[in-house]
Structure formats: C-alpha cells, structure tokens
Amino acid sequence: MDRADLVMINGAEPEVLDPALVTAQATGRIAYALLEGLTSFDSDAKPVPAVADHWEISPDGLHYTFHLRREARWSNGDPVVSGDFLYSWRRTLLPETASEYSSQLYYLRNAKPFNEGKLKDFSEVGVRAPDDYTLEVTLENPTAYFLDLCAFMTLLPVHPATVERYADWASKPEHFMGNGAYLLEEWRPFDRVRMVKNPRYWNAGAVALESIDVLPSAKPNTAFNFYATGLADLMMDKGLAPTSLMNELKKRPDFHAGRFLGNYFIRFNLTHKPFNDARVRLALSLVIDKQLITDKITRAGEEPADSLTPPGAGAGYQPPPGLKLDPERARKLLAEAGFPGGRSFPIFYYLYKGDSDLDRDIAVELQGMYARELGIHMQLQAQEWTAYLDSQSRLDYDLCRSSWVADYNDPNTFLNMFVTDDGNNRTGWSDKKYDGLIADAARQVDLAHRYEIFREAEHLLISEAAPICPLYYYVGIQFYDGSRLAGIEPNLLDEHPLKLIHWIGAK
Questions:
Q1: Positive/negative CA dihedral, 133, 134, 140, 142
Q2: C-beta neighbour count of 199 within 10 angstroms
C-alpha cells in the first residue's frame, strides 16, 4: 500500500469507534474525522456550523432549533436527517448502552432520569425531530457551551440502519458508515488505521488530504524514532515526547507546545480501605512534591497543579487555593487515622499505563516520596492501555494515574465528573453537598455567582474530601515541520481537526 498523504502518530491503539463508548482523546481524533455532529471544532477549538448550517436560540437560553443542511450525506449516500441524531442520542442515554460519557447529554431536559432508568418514555426527553431537517432541543438550564457540546464526540451521530444490522460496525471498516470528511478504509490493530477522503462529505472541496494513516505507538522512544526517521510526518499525542530528551527537544524548530485545559492527577479508590478515610487521602496528597515532578520528570513547561480545573477556564475562572506540600501535617493526619509513622499501614498498589515511561517515572517518584515521608510502601502495577481503563472503570485499584482533558471550555467539564455516579467519577466518592453545589451552579445565569459556587465545590473536592490529587496542568506537544504542514493551531482544548490539516505547496 502506498504511503498516505499524512502519517500521524497518535498514542494508544484506538477503542471501538462508537461515539457512545469512546473515552480517549486519541480515539476521539479518529472519530471526529469519520463522523460529524451538528457543529464541529475549528482550528481554535470553537464550534462552527457542521451538519447544522444554522440555528436559533431562545432568549432564555433553553431552546435550540437546529436546521440541518440538505447536502449532508452518510457515506452510502443516505441523507443525514434529524432522526439520526434522535436515534443516536437516545442510544447513548439508554442504560443498557453503558456509556461512560452519557452525562454529556444530561443538559437535555429529563435526560438524566432517562439514563438512570427512572423515566422510560424518551419522548419526554428534551429533543425532538418535527421534520427531517429540523432538530429541536430543550435544556434543563441555560448552558452557554451547548454548541461546544454539539461538536463533542459523545454527541456525534451514528447511522441507525448500520448499527441495527451489524454488531461489529464500530470496529470493522467494511461495516462502518460515517458522515465525516474521511472514510475508514482499513484498521490493522496495533499497526495502523487508514482513512481516505470521503467524496460524499458536504464540504469535501475544503478537505486537502486524500489519505491519512494513524499509527498507534504509546511508547515515547518508539514513537519519536518513527517520527525522527521520517516514517511519520506528525506526532500528536502529548505523552509521546521522550521526557529524558525534553530539554534538547524543546530547542528544535519542529517542537510545538501550548497550554491547554488538561490535568494529570491521582485517583484514590474510596471502596478500598484505608483510602475511605479522608485523612489518609489528604496525607498522601500533602507529601507530593509537584514542583519536583515537573522539573525533574515532565520538563516541558508544565505547571504544578493545586486544583483540578486549570486557571482561566471558561470566562476567566480562578480555582480556589489547593493543598501545598506539607509533610508535617501529612504525618499528623496519618497518625490520627491510626497509622503513626506509617505503622500497620497496608501495602498498596498504584495503577498506571505500562507503555508510558512518563507514567512509570512519576510512579517511581511517588513511591519514594511515600516511603521517605510517611513510612508506607506502595507497589507499582503496570497495565496496558485497555486493561488499565477497564481496571479504573471497575474500581479495581488502590491509587491510579489519571488525566482529564476538557471536553469544552468551562470549569464544569472538570468538576461535573465527580458528581455521584457520573461515568467518569471512577473513585467511589459520593458527597451530597458536592452534588448539590454542582447542580446549583448549573441553574445560575450570573457568571460571577456561578464561579463562586464552583470554587466552593472545588475546595471540597481537593482540600477537604480529596478523592483525587492534582499533580500538574498539561502542556500540549506536537512535532511537525511548520514550514511545510499547516492547519494545526494551539488551543485550549488541544483539538486539531484532521480535515483542516494541509501541506504548504507540494509535499
């Protein structure tokens, strides 16, 4: 097979390409190329018209009327109609689908009780299709970022007839039906995904690249060797730059970095003792030297994180002060919890991605900090990507490496996931006060008051209950020759639509 127009290294092997089930950013990049929502992201990660060419929003911000463009087509030639969105969103919300991101549709009126099985009649959920080219949406509360959500992967449509006919549609190119800029031509697991330009895409004339190969390579040294030897044109994933070489790599003209809304953090499993005790969780958080981790290990300009939400999210949200390095307080808390000097504290395990040198190096550093400062012993548990995700979802861990990249530019994308029973909580933590604060914030129209409520909730999350411990805010990293390749712009969501990438002049 000939070399694709663009060869991109994209991190871990993709999950199934089912919008209802996709959770990883690397898989999302492929999904965005194959499927398109009512809106899509531009190069600045702002929502722009896509399947919907225009819309109206009611003065109270609760009602959206989307008008679908009649030239939008599925790859078999079927028109993309409003009923496709109705089917897709209902499918994501059905309890039996078990979508971990189903809460991204909770902004629709009655979507949450439907997803929880408390409401059986989907016609009572706030979305309807009065005709093939009109979709009407009613929200629970005014949601300033709803147009961003309409571009997000969970709200992408699927082709109803294909989903009903083929159980393997989301992993087999011969059965996959898309409406995006590209078609899924080939998927060789742990080798490559090939996509080719979709001639039926409504805006095909603006798509420059005829073919794209996406190579999975989660090991940084392997990935960088692929790129450095010319086997790949673009290295996209933030975790693929070898940290041992970072000081030199930052000097290269093909090194591109930019701040975005992402956080690397630790989850505690509250269903395992002694991590059900907040004093233990706080103690383990207070001995972590985050500055040392960013200076010694990550080395790409990341900032230590006192909060889950990066400063400046949304319209300038500033999170509350978080926990600072305080080993003395940590030892007191551990003693109060019944483990003076670390005595009788059980051996515990830290789960991380085994194919990531960065995760391993951070795990080893944490292991040393806990032994030196608290006298407790942590074992390291490495798993490959899919097993790691499964263990995290099943709460089969003590502590685990975690990360979150904003789905939209608002503090809610970080804070909402720790509401009780949210599919992305994965800690076993539940707090009625926290749930109430997040719900209250959703009802607010006044932005300043909404942010005050968020700050109260985030203080509870980070400094009191501490089911998680933030380590650092992400920096987005890409490697490519900027004099030849264009369409990749730094933005707060670290989204870089493949349909916008193009070569400058002849390749």
A1: positive
A2: 10
